[in-house]
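Researcher: Let's do a round of design. I'm pasting the structure tokens now; please hold your answer until I've finished.
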């Protein structure tokens, strides 16, 4: 059996950071993330393979503790590695 990825022992959630040029829009844990990638929606759950993606324009949805948080994003990048999701967007604000 393969060894768990670094950071895999941190529980059953993702750590998510959403950054705009002006500020940190969100930082915390999440059960799932759905992002508007350049060529369609991208769903991310715990254990997702490492990934880099271009962001399109639309609604970034973060589900945590049974509630859904929504942010309008436009352009930028998304990275997934070791149960950490980082969203760097040209524009990101609460929906």
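Researcher: That's everything. Go ahead.
Model: Designed sequence:
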């Amino acid at each position: 059996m393969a060894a768990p990825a670094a950071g895999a022992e941190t529980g059953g959630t993702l750590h998510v950071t959403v950054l705009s040029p002006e500020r940190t829009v969100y930082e915390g844990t999440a059960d799932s993330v759905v992002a508007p990638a350049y060529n369609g929606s991208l769903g991310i759950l715990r254990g997702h393979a490492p990934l880099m993606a271009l962001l399109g324009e639309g609604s970034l949805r973060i589900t945590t503790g049974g509630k859904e948080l929504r942010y309008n994003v436009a352009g930028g990048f998304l990275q997934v590695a070791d149960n950490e999701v980082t969203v760097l967007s040209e524009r990101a604000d609460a929906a």
